[in-house]
Every structure is written in C-alpha cells, then in structure tokens.
Amino acid sequence: MTSPVQDETNSAKTRAGVYPWFVVLMLMVAYALSFVDRQILSLLVEPIKDDLAISDSQIGLLQGLAFALFYTLAGLPIGRLADYSNRRNIIAIGITVWSLMTFLCSLPKTFFGFFLARMGVGVGEAALSPSAYSLMSDYFPRERIGTAVGIYNVGIYVGAGLALIIGGVLIDAIPAIRDQLPALVAGFADWRIVFMLVGLPGILLAVLFVLLVREPARRYQLTGHRTDKLSIADSISFVARRWRRFFGFFVGMTLQSIIFYALLSWVPTHFIREFGWSQGDIGLSLGIVMVIFGSIGVIAGGMLCDYFWKKGVDDAPILVAFLSLIGVALSVVMALVFHAQPYWQLIAVGVSLFSCSLMMTAGPAGLQNMLPNQLRAQVSATYLFVLNLVSLTLGPLLPALLSDHLFQDERYIGLSVLIVVGGLCLVLVPVYQFSRVLFRQDIRNTPLQEELR
User: Fold this and answer.
1) For 131-148, how does the pLDDT look when each residue is reduced to its tens digit (9 = 90+)?
2) Residue 25, number of CB atoms within 10 A of its CB
3) Backbone phi, psi, residue 222, to 5°
4) ∠ at Cα 420 (417, 425), nearest 5°?
5) Measured between alpha carbons, how far is 70 from 124 in angstroms, rounded to an integer?
6) Which residue has better confidence, 5 or 386?
7) Which of 83, 142, 258, 299 has the most CB atoms within 10 Å of its CB?
8) Hey, where are the domains in the chain?
C-alpha cells in the first residue's frame, strides 16, 4: 500500500515529460475518428435523399436530432461514471460502440431505421469528451490545460475534414473497384459502402487505447466533501449556486455552436447544388480548409485562454468567445460580397470555422479550471448535454427548414445557412457582454480557487 507522499510522487511523474502529450495525441485521434463517423453523412446527402426518398428537413434530423438525442442523454450517466471509474476503459468501450453503429448505418432501408442507427452512434460518442476532459485535467497543471484541450479539439477539424476528404475519395473510387469487392458488399449502394469502410478502423483504435493509455491519479478534490463519489444532484447544486459564472458557457457558447454545426452540415451540399461541384471536389477542398483553419483555431483558442489566465483575466474563456465573433461576422460579409465566387466562399467558410474553433476550446478549458475533480466529468457532460442537444439539433435543422418552407427551393440552402449565422452573431454580442458582467460579479463574491485544493 503506498503512502500519500508516494502517490503524489507517482502522480507528478505521470504529469512530467512527453507522456501526457502522447495521451492528448491519442485522445485527439479518437476525437478525429468520432467526427469522421459523425460527419461523413454531410457529404452523402444527395445519394441518401434519393435512396431513402426523404427531404432536407429529414436529412437535418438525421444529422442533428437523431445523433444529438442519445449523445446528450447518455453523456450524463457516463459523465457520472467517469468521475469515479476508469476513464480509459470508458473511452475504449465508447469507441467500439460508435464504430459498430457507424457500420450499421450502411444497412437501413427507411428513414426510421437510419434514425435508430444514428442514435447508436451518439451513445458511443457520448463516452469520449467528458472522460477526456477529466483525464487531461489530471495529466496537466492548470496553466497548460487550455493548450492540451486545444490540441484535443484539433480532432474536431481533422475528423470533419477527413470525413469530407475520405468520403469524397471513396465515393469517386468505389465504382471503379466495385468488381473487386466481396460479393456480399458489391451489391450495396456507394454511400452504404462508405459507412462500412469508415466504421471499421475504430475497433483497432479501441484496442490500442487500452494498451497504451494509463489512468492517472485524480487531483484537485472538492474541499469539505468526501473524495469519493458525488451525486448528479451535487453537480447540479454546484452549478446552480454559481449560475452567473456558468451563464456564458451554457447559453453563449451553445448558441455559437449552432453556427458551427450549420456550416458543417450544409456547406458541402451548398457547393454541390449551387456550383455543380462533385462530392470528390468539395470533399477535398472543404476538407483541407477545415483541417487547416479549424486546427489552427482550436490551438490558438487554448493558447489565448492560457495567456489571459496568466494575465489574471478570470473570465478568459468568455472573452475569447466574444472576440471570436469578429471573425464570424467578417465571414458573413465575405460570403455576401463574393456570393458568386466559390473559392472566395471557401475562404469565408474557413474564416468562420477558425473563429468558431476559438470558442470550442475556450469552453471546455474554462470549465476544467473552474471545477473540482469529483465534478469535472459530470458538469462537463451537463455542459455538453445542453450545448449538443441545442446546437446539434438546430444547426442542421434551421437552414433546412428555411430551405424547405421559406424559400421552397433546395438551391437556397446556402442563403439559409447565411441567415442563421448572421442572425446568431447579432444575438451573441449582447449575450457575451452580459455573461462577462455576471461572471465578474460572481468571482468577486467567491474566488475561483476558494473551494479547490
């Protein structure tokens, strides 16, 4: 049996050197794979619509609500489990589940069957982020958490970009290699084979995760409480008592995430319908833009948070999110000015993705610095529940509703996205300003570090 001094020494060794960054890399790869499996559908809208005979609004539900419903609901009990169980194993099981369910997305013949398969993908992916954020907060000191979370969030854009690139390549390649495929697979439609192929690599990653990632010792416990299991009621009470501190995260960042998912869901279809690009062309072009602009943005967002924290700015995450609106607003102007020039529109999309990615690191990094160890995964899961249920549902759905019911013309999907993005920018300016006022008021009453050790 080890002494507390030995435990702390072992914990310090775990947090030293390059191994923590290797763990972040493994988490980032898992996050990237999750976004490949989540977002591959956005490139396959047209063949899926034709095969299943469904509308843009139903596609919006498949991209959004079907995934978000159980992604968010399952995240709450999984977050609770991650606060006192082995987080590495939880992540490995989640990878296995979402990979198998992505494979099963190749089989449904109806909208309802596809809806159920997408729900299963959401259940598996719900295991990743709450556990990952909690792991990183035990591997890194507070002043490096922003950068670590930023690198982890690179997986969003690498994964979403690879979904487009790989999906485009596969769609173009499958007709040429169909005769070489096993007879059982060769009879499937191209889009169905794509789901089969992108679902399989996750099984290997789950095995590697168990073999290569260690569970670290837990740090920064909540003072005045036992250091074992705290209930969901404890986490809700903690947030409710400090609602002013969390308002900008749960309201502002949730609204801004709608912008991200609207772009992610419908930009490929806009280029296919408006400019006549093939799935391979837009997959490669937008995939590269997404990987470059998004990856730089999430790392920059984490570094900005770390910089402002070192300068004593307690509401650094909300400040970074507010500043990111400048880039989003600029991208709207660019899209309006260059509405008939596809390559300029790609750059506008890149600017918007870069700006949104600043916020996407600021939120989780900020929460880890504000929460005791026993509540990190649970409160993170609650945050992701609110953010993803709203943004994953409304991001894909709002542009589709405008296209189907306001314009009644699928060619206007690009303008529909622009209306959603521009309208949310106008709403978010006062929301973030109000959030900063509330945060500062709360900090004056209860400093961040008062309850942590």
Assistant:
1) 998 899 889 887 788 888
2) 15
3) -75, 120
4) 125
5) 9
6) 386
7) 83
8) 15-219+227-445
